[in-house]
Specification:
By secondary structure, the chain is an all-beta fold. It is built from no helices and nine strands. It is globular, with a radius of gyration of 13 Å.
């Protein structure tokens, strides 16, 4: 696996939650891979259609419609959409230390 990149997305230091508007219909490109990377925030994502693989700390999880997952800070993750049925998902970024 490639070296993870560390992302500090402190978009608004005063907001605890940031809802990310993704392009409509929120479907990612077939085979698109995001990672490996490490975030400094919690990210909750909900798969509305399609499928993909989430790799978290080296463990693969198959994600499909109706499934939700949370990415924890300081965890190496990689997201990859399916080649033939790429996922569409909604995402909420959660900031803060409490």
């Amino acid at each position: 696996m490639a070296e993870p990149k560390y992302i500090d997305r402190n978009i608004n230091k005063y907001a605890d939650i940031h809802i990310c508007p993704l392009p409509n219909p929120n479907r990612m490109f077939p085979g698109y891979c995001n990672g490996p990377l490490v975030r400094d925030i919690f990210v909750m994502q909900f798969c509305t259609e399609g499928k993909g693989i989430l790799t978290s700390d080296g463990i693969d999880f198959e994600i499909g419609p109706g499934m939700c997952f949370v990415e924890f800070p300081n965890t190496v993750i990689c997201e990859k959409t399916d080649e033939f049925d790429p996922w569409a998902k909604l995402r909420v970024n959660m900031y803060g230390s409490d």
